[in-house]
Design brief:
49% of the residues lie in helices and 20% in strands. It is built from twelve helices and twelve strands. The relative contact order is 0.20.
Length: 389
């Protein structure tokens, strides 16, 4: 014979203070846990949206990011003229040889500076990345010391508004336009003319080359072309999307490990708190437990009843914590991109998998916190329980 669920829930409601404290404790832990998962997911989502499966990004082998890659001009010329590269209507390759460097800018409303990525591009870069759209002002003039700033830069750094001046590379650059890159990593960059950026930083080589493939599914022939030409032996071509996904995995893994470590510490306290609450519930309801046993309810029924009560409290705490964490979706923050060592702006991203994981985690805390008290309640002797006052 099972104890009715209404009776179990009514017992929790009657102890409002202890119930509220337990729910709040679990909610705080679930909030932190969910926020960490949303942060890692946001970083991955931002970097994954940076690349395209139709583009091939060529970098030096073993280079973990564009900033670490060096490509000589001869190799770059060979790559853009490969037969697998798509061409525009005028017959020119849809390709962009690029120089990627790091500069320091002062942050808005905060003391100190932070690293920012500057990307020197060729004209087809805008065709390769159609998500990059000018929202204010204009694009930079080729051959001029001008740059355009991504949405993540304008919101966080001094001197990144239209008409303002930025000093880097031994010269002064004018911000002539603002662009939006649909929440991708390009939003955290400054773009300028390849030749001007290379000249300012005394670069005779490039960082990477990005090309549009005629047939995005025929990556095998591109790989064979690289393997058959000794001049390309130090370089590797990857789908642009995969290149940035690999960067995101490293960052997301670090965030998750750090977040889980912090969450485990917090959850230990909440689990112990739930356990104390349930032990107190058992102590205060000793006579009630004895009465239930005398009425014919089995030990198993008592065990299940107290476990369900603990799980109900944990689930309520999980819902509260998840509700507050979901508000973070409307906020954007920035962190260090381990690949480029520059600042990356991103938004917290909630997903069905995160919702399920967070609620599952809250139920796990409820199970761990309620199991021992439930066992104690089930093992109470009927006679001694009825004699308790």
């Amino acid at each position: 014979m099972q104890i009715p669920l209404k009776y179990i829930l009514r017992s929790s409601v009657s102890r409002r203070l202890t119930t509220a404290i337990t729910i709040i404790g679990i909610a705080l832990v679930v909030f932190v846990f969910t926020a960490v998962l949303m942060m890692a997911n946001g970083v991955q989502k931002t970097l994954r949206s940076t690349g395209s499966d139709d583009n091939l990004l060529v970098a030096r082998k073993a280079a973990m990011s564009e900033i670490m890659s060096i490509m000589d001009r001869e190799a770059a010329g060979i790559i853009v003229n490969l037969p697998q590269v798509a061409h525009a209507a005028d017959g020119t390759p849809i390709s962009s040889k690029e120089v990627v460097v790091i500069i320091n800018l002062n942050k808005l409303g905060a003391a100190g500076i932070s690293n920012v990525t500057v990307r020197g591009v060729e004209a087809p870069a805008f065709q390769l990345r159609p998500q990059v759209k000018i929202t204010e002002g204009r694009t930079f003039n080729w051959g001029a010391r001008e740059v355009i700033a991504g949405a993540g830069i304008t919101k966080r750094f001094v001197g990144a508004q239209i008409g303002e001046k930025i000093k880097f590379g031994g010269d002064v650059w004018t911000v002539v336009g603002l662009f939006d890159a649909a929440g991708s990593g390009f939003d955290s960059e400054l773009w300028g003319d390849l030749n001007q950026i290379a000249d300012a930083f005394k670069r005779s080589s490039f960082s990477t080359v990005t090309v549009r493939l005629k047939d995005p599914d025929d990556l095998a022939s591109v790989t064979r072309a690289f393997e058959s030409d000794n001049r390309l032996q130090y370089f590797v071509g990857k789908r642009e999307k995969k290149f940035f996904e690999e960067q995101s995995e490293m960052m997301a893994t670090f965030i998750r490990i750090l977040g889980i470590f912090i969450t485990v510490i917090f959850s230990t306290g909440s689990t112990i708190g739930a356990m104390i609450t349930m032990y107190g519930s058992v102590a205060n309801r000793t006579t009630e437990i004895g009465t239930l046993r005398a009425l014919g309810f089995f030990r198993r029924s008592i065990l299940i009843a107290f476990l369900l009560e603990s799980l109900a409290l944990a689930f309520a705490g999980g819902l509260v914590g998840l509700g507050f964490a979901s508000v973070l979706q409307f906020f954007s923050i920035s962190t260090l991109n381990f690949g480029s060592f520059s600042e990356l702006a991103f938004s917290f991203a909630l997903s069905p998998a995160i919702v399920a994981t967070s609620l599952g985690f809250s139920l796990l805390m409820g199970l761990l916190g309620g199991f021992l008290p439930a066992v104690r309640a089930a093992r109470l002797d009927i006679i001694q329980a009825l004699r308790a006052v």
